[in-house]
Recover the amino acids of this structure.
């Protein structure tokens, strides 16, 4: 009974990923990434994709063990070299109507004992090598969706008190709930949820706020928004009309901060798993949009390496509102996985901004976007600032204030 | 104890695949293909490859379930279309010093209930699309190696009387023996074996036979060899000097028949697993090198589709001698897997010939090779003709005869 329930929810999961996440249409191709624990879901995704008229599914397999062994045993020079033909391959796929579905199962501390210099160099190398194709996803020129399935190491991190198989079952259960797989018709449930997010999006856009203020324990931050910013919640759209949802789950409504107009201090309310390492209890201070100071009880060097990536890594690229009573947040569980934690909490992102957060993105050159205040970077790292004591205010051009979130929740 | 033995042999397997099969050198990249049952071996291969200075291992995952679902649920038109960017990707990798390691685990009857027309169309489509890059492997411009690991369906086919886990264990055991993994130093054992195959190669080359005759029950075939043919056994060589072994295991010494000078009839002595379907008890008759008649108790339509692929599919591209007392043959087991069965039996191949079987391949144009009698085709399909009653004769230009194999074994 238990087992058949699991399979039933897994089938739902595959359908939601295709029908809501990727918004799959006939003749679409898929670049499907997964690892060993994602294989059962990937198999269902493949079957359902072909049933829906997918023209091809390219499987991209990555493995924690192989990844670790590469860092531990590989020659030092290989962490600075990513061959161009790999980037060309992905670009050619994008141009040929392929879209990306990532079934991830991150171990939050996979790389904690690995040479951090290699990790940072490789991250930088990949970011630079893939820079020419990042716009396909960042600017919604292709459809993409990120989802997660639990692996043993991750499950043990979330439920350290349970033994492995119980921890896995508990995390599966949480994920099925957080992703609405237990609803009677999960695809419909996601469509209803999307309508609610679009209402929030419209309300915020109609107000056309000049600034957003975050106030809470250890946090006092004033974020000026880019002129012509657009709030986005839920689904995104291709120019040709396809609707997709880049994250399953998603509870956020987010927009674009001005890269040079962020002032004050912000305290993270959850740990951050970054590059396979944890950063805990950290604060960051901004002046004229730029990080001028930061501290962390654990993993400070990981932040340091992040800020060293490029100028844009020290500025904000996203501000996102999520109520403290979101279905994910209500579980009261720390996921150690940005995909879930960012949808349980207001958050900010360091690094690259999303073009879709500009109302007139299509008509603007990169230069003009930058001038408006859009941040660019090789990285995009979300960190959580929400919680039951957070107050978020919107300030209009005329100086009038609207309380958006009080005690962590929508007013 | 049993388990640790398995792991010990598996580690040996990985080392043999890298040190003997691929002849891996520092700075080589690897294109590593595997499926779920190959994953444990693939992981060891990755670790050992990085330890040996590999610059990169690209993992290529294929899955029987996904493959079947594609055939069963995919739109009809997708079996005629392979995007060029996939071929370009492989070519770019070859040009960038990547080499292919295939860890296969074929289910001999995977596609038996699938629309055969789709299978044939897809095979033709892939062959045509990859035609521009086939020479990299066929002419030893890159290193490549094919090996196999048992999966449940294959193991049950070989040992139908055993239950699944026992069948798997028995097939693992057979494969470890057939691949010399139980020898004290398997890498050294393979090097010794290579010396013996090279001696056979030299003996056959020194005799410079004009014709090879096969005589046995249902078989009476005269094969004229190409002028300037070269016998090959064991390892191959890149121009730059790297030594590799394209099959693990390998027991054969093979050369190039003249595409237009094969006369007589030949009876297959083992079933052939072709495109996921079995062909059993079949004979083929040749006239002026070309198939003029064929019959099969089972799977005749599979042969029919094969011969319809192109003109070259109806002519021979390889003649290979393997003694009936080879270590694989001695097990007396039918593997339903060409990699093993062809190394337990003399065999012939329909379709494309190997350039390395011409002494002066480097200096000859494709046109000149064809004129000499080299066969070309999109396919290359080995079928087994050896057995305890087979006699193989070599006939020199002056008409003198040498008995090469008597009662199936080297004289």
């Amino acid at each position: 009974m238990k087992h058949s329930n699991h399979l039933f929810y897994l089938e739902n999961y595959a359908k939601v990923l295709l029908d809501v996440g990727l918004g799959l249409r006939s003749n679409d191709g898929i670049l499907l990434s997964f690892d060993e624990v994602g294989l059962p879901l990937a198999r269902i995704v493949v079957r359902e994709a072909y049933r829906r008229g997918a023209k091809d599914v390219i499987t991209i397999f990555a493995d924690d063990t192989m990844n670790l062994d590469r860092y531990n045993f590989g020659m030092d020079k290989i962490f600075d070299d990513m061959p161009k033909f790999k980037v060309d391959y992905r670009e050619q796929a994008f141009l040929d109507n392929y879209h990306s579905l990532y079934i991830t199962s991150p171990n939050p501390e996979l790389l904690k004992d690995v040479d951090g210099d290699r990790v940072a160099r490789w991250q930088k190398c990949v970011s630079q090598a893939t820079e020419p194709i990042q716009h396909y996803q960042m600017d919604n020129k292709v459809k993409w969706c990120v989802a997660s399935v639990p692996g043993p190491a991750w499950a043990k991190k979330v439920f350290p008190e349970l033994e492995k198989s119980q921890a896995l079952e508990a995390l599966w259960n949480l994920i099925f709930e957080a992703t609405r797989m237990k609803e009677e018709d999960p695809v419909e449930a996601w469509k209803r949820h999307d309508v609610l997010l679009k209402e929030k999006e419209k309300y915020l856009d109609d107000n056309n706020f000049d600034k957003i203020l975050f106030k809470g324990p250890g946090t006092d931050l004033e974020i000026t928004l880019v002129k012509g910013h657009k709030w986005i919640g839920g689904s995104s759209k291709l120019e040709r009309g396809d609707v997709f949802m880049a994250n399953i789950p998603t509870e956020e409504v987010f927009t674009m901060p001005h890269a040079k107009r962020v002032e004050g201090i912000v305290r993270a309310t959850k740990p951050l798993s970054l590059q396979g390492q944890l950063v805990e209890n950290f604060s960051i201070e901004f002046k004229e949009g730029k990080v001028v100071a930061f501290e962390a009880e654990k993993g400070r060097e990981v932040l340091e390496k992040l800020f060293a990536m490029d100028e844009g890594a020290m500025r904000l690229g996203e501000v996102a509102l999520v109520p403290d009573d979101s279905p994910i947040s209500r579980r009261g569980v720390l996921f150690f996985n940005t995909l879930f934690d960012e949808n349980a909490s207001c958050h900010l992102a360091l690094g690259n901004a999303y073009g879709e957060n500009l109302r007139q993105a299509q008509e603007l050159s990169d230069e003009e976007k930058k001038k408006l205040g859009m941040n660019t970077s090789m990285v995009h790292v979300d960190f959580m600032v929400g919680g039951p004591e957070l107050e978020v205010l919107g300030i209009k051009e005329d100086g009038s204030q609207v309380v958006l979130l009080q005690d962590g929740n929508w007013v």
Chain B touches chain A through 38 residues (CB under 8 Å). Chain B has a mean pLDDT of 94. The domain at 3-178 of chain B is CATH 3.40.1830.10 (Thermophilic metalloprotease-like).
